[in-house]
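QA checklist item 7 of 12: single-chain prediction sanity check.
[x] sequence parsed
[x] length recorded as 425
[x] structure emitted
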Amino acid sequence: MKQVRSASGRPRKGAPGAARSPNARKTPSRSGKNTAKAFHHDEPGEDARPKRSAPVRAAASGTKERAPARQGPVTDYTMTRAEAKAIAQETLVSGVQILTVTSDEADMRLDRFLTARFPLLSFAHIQRIVRKGELRVDMKRVKPNDRLTPGQAVRIPPLKLDAPKPVSKNAAREQSDREFLQSITLYEDKDVLVINKPMGLAVQGGSGTTRHVDGLLEALRDKDDQKPRLVHRLDKDTAGCLVIAKTRFAAQVMAKSFRSRSARKVYWAIVVGAPRVNQGRISTYLAREEVGDNGDARMKVAKHGDDGASHALTYYAVVDTAGQKLTWISLKPVTGRTHQLRAHAAHIGHPIIGDPKYFDIENWELPGGIQNKLHLLARRIVIPHPRTGKAIDVTAPLPPHMQQSFNLLGFDTSRYDPIIEAPEE
């Protein structure tokens, strides 16, 4: 068949004989369904992940600048102009954003990455878009607690953010927050802050939560406008030791300490009944059972291989008993799953008194004088200092409602705690 040629002598595009290259790529559709193609490498050394949205806009406007190389382990990769234009077009049409993890964000949890990039994005919204698979990292489904590495591409679905309310800095309010944090401080140096979180104070904001530790930390911004960072969590109704990093360096190092289990935690609780075995090991798999619109969850004991199931390991030891009615136990979690201690205590038939989620014993009444509040305390934490490596060893006092129960039951806090003999793994 005779080929139709242009004035240049080359086969005209679309004409018979103008064969399509086997490596040619289709342009992403306006619906954004061909997003994966934007991350295909045309040649060695080309990467379609943008570092910032600015280079994408430049490419979309027709300039000839190429996006700068991404930060991270590989630094010689750049995005092609065509790929940048395709991503920019998709963002304009669908509202989808592609963010690239920077070196400063290395090892950051996904939910914290989103909170840092989108301060107006609620915790419940983060949980929802991750759970539904609308948010992807390198085109894969992820979990909120997954860690990020430099250069990864985070696909952000269209977000509906509330317009920030104009808030003027209230010097009196900030001073009040600083004084409150100082009043509950158990340990502090230039890198680390450990506070005695009160029962009922949330660690982070959520639906209907306006006062929380993360918000209070705004009052502790330094001269470089750096705000102290949370490195682990406690449930809202759990009192006790909460570790906070005052610098980015400390946050990265201590986050690794928690992840590698070199941080040691001891909890105290009062449970129903008396365990038959004074010292034991609870090993199960836990999975999320119910999730409401506010991101709240209840954990259930699951089987290995069940969807979302993670291994959870806890050691416990009986410290003292009040007849067979109530027992003071000490707990050492090896893993750090959501509601792990509360779910494990209920699993062995001895739920923590005052637990609104896991206490399921019918026709059981609290002894007189004991308040119906969660009797769980993050009693002690031992963690290597991020700079010196020396152990920071901090102990929290009993919260008022637990102190009252201890007094009524005759429990002595100076009694030997056998949990220190429990294995570390």
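[x] summary fact logged: Confidence is low (pLDDT under 50) at residues 11-77.
[ ] second reviewer sign-off
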